[in-house]
């Protein structure tokens, strides 16, 4: 199970890294011909970065709620 969980976090991490690379390349004027303009390249990189981070954050929140380690659960028990 831990290997599956590691793979679930590894793939969005790679997607986030690709997003960071696209944003960095657009800021330093390294243009990829797939995109029509550097601003489109930056926006797609930002979307990829935010999607990867959101997936990782959602996975961690889901796991913590399942194991009852969130703050709301602690307040309800006291």
> Termini separation (Å)?
32 Å
Structural class: mainly alpha
Instruction: Output mean pLDDT.
Output: 85
Q: Report the portion of residues in β strands.
A: under 5%
Would you identify the regions where 5 or more consecutive residues have pLDDT less than 50? none
Percent helix range: over 70%
Tally of DSSP helical segments: 3
Transmembrane segments: 40-62
Keywords: Membrane, Transmembrane, Transmembrane helix
Protein name: DUF2627 family protein
Pfam family, one: DUF2627
Blueprint (SSEs and pairs):
Elements: H1 2-27, H2 38-66, H3 71-77
Helix pairs in contact: 1-2
Keywords: Membrane, Transmembrane, Transmembrane helix
Transmembrane segments: 40-62
Pfam family, one: DUF2627
In short:
The protein is 79% helix and 0% strand. With 78 residues, it is an all-alpha fold.
Describe the structure.
By secondary structure, the chain is mainly alpha-helical. The protein has one domain (2-77). It is 79% helix and 0% strand. It contains 3 helices and no strands. It has helices at 2-27, 38-66, 71-77. α1 packs antiparallel against α2 (38-66). The model has no long low-confidence stretch (mean pLDDT 85). InterPro entries: Uncharacterised_YqzF. Pfam families: DUF2627. This is DUF2627 family protein. The chain crosses the membrane at residues 40-62. Keywords: Membrane, Transmembrane, Transmembrane helix.
